[in-house]
Amino acid sequence: MKRTFLSLALPFIAGASAAGATTPFDAESEADNNIERIRQLDDAGPQINSVIVYDADAAEKAGAAADTGYLRGRTVLVKDNIETAEWATTAGSLALKGNITGRDAPMIVNLRKSGGVVLGKTNLSEWANIRDDNSTSGWSAIGGLTRNPHAIDRNSCGSSAGSGAAVAAGFAWAAIGTETDGSITCPSSVNGVVGFKPTVGMVSRTHVVPISHSQDTAGPMANSVSDAAMLLTALAGSDSTDSATTDADLYKGDFTQGLADASLKGVRIGILKNQIGSRADVRGLFDAALADLTRAGAVLVEVDFTPDRAMYRDEFVTLLFELRDDMQSYLAGLPGEDLPRTLADLIAFNKANASVEMRWFGQSIFEQAEGTTDREAYETARKNAFRLAGPEGIDKLLAENNVAFLIAPTTGPAWASDLVHGDNYSGGIGAGSLAAISGYPHLTVPMGAVEGLPVGLSIMSGKWRDHEVLKAGAAYEKARTTPLATPSFERWKPANSIAPSGDSEPIMKK
Q: I want to staple 161 with a disulfide (CB 3.0 to 4.6 A). Which of 138, 197, 372, 387 is the partner?
């Protein structure tokens, strides 16, 4: 029997932003509220199932850190493929249930030094959705299936599903997600929160369960662009053990600076018209966002772009090869005993535990990756995919159209979760792979909802233009006129529907 659903009596304390805060920030009260919401809405009630483990003493720790550093005791949930000293880091798999390293990833070290409080670990799509091509996003053997707070029978998208759902549900001030291609931006979009995939190399990947050193990055997920910028400020920086971050210190800073006064007046923005998709409802939201941008003074330019399919083909080759190598490097360096040490070990573990690990879907991508060993073919594929996404993709589009940013809807509304059939993405919407493959920044900001299901607006630009993208997002956020959805913590139902009661006949349109 589930506990009584008491969520509506709980205050939603999202935390004051650095830019434009109007009320005092009480770190201890927020953390206390976060924990109570987790207990009533994640563990019980609608059982959002986004938080795997949390620190029951977090409120006390938040109070102690309230005068510390940049974040001053704000609570942060961490995706469970990022190491924290307190708990196991599992990537959602029973194979890593005992992976208690006792160490913090460098980004977590930065977070704590900045006064952030690690509240707990969030569920994710197992192995960050790279195990099988028929998976269900938001499911892991460790955490089960995460539900979307806006409609609990709808998907929370992958692979940072738990982080997106937890922020939307008010379980923490913010959360950390990771992305290889879409795994911050998609869950942020469908859960109605802000998500930022920074330039690859802005945030260290050391002690993070990997997929691809070419594309992996961590990033913030929050309730506002300013909060996301605050969290990125705490996480970013160079790390001597991650060569991709060599230049991070040159580009990091206080990412909230300039957000409150950010303007789009005279800013040229490219509309990726072929990436809007065919859904009339999503197009309607996007048109409203374009109208808001125009009123804010932006100059909108239609951009006619169709990506070369070879980009996606060669990205997949890249991910297969790097998954095998990078996973082996990570597993081999784990300090514990009786842990898998290679991708082959993981494949064998899944076969031995198939009734639990592979009840809903298999491991076809793992098996493909294990057989992808041609380094020359991989190097050729990576160079071509990057060329098509970066120099001949985003860079070329920005230059030829004389625009500062590219925009499109992020993805469609959340689909019904179905463990038997797997995911059901709305095709043809969004252009996030360009930013993912090139390693360039990509921000998604809520722009409205379709029948109560959130949809985000993507803003992308060139390498290391993270601050500029965040400022553009903050300016759009201020200009937005479309109302945003509020989590219902119930099953989805059509807007303005009338349910029949007793013996009455359903009302039908004639």
A: 138
